[in-house]
């Protein structure tokens, strides 16, 4: 999710499309939160690991 967010962010910046930039930032933040929760050992959505 973080990688997809980075790709959309870069496309949005280079193509000057603000909606892609916004979606990219949101995906990066959500991916980082899920990564941090998964790294601490908390179960997310009934799973021990979030892939």
From TrEMBL:
Superkingdom assignment: Bacteria
Database matches in InterPro entries: DUF6131
Segments passing through the bilayer: 25-45
Pfam families: DUF6131 (PF19626)
Keywords: Membrane, Transmembrane, Transmembrane helix
Protein known as: DUF6131 family protein
Natural source organism: Terrabacter terrigena
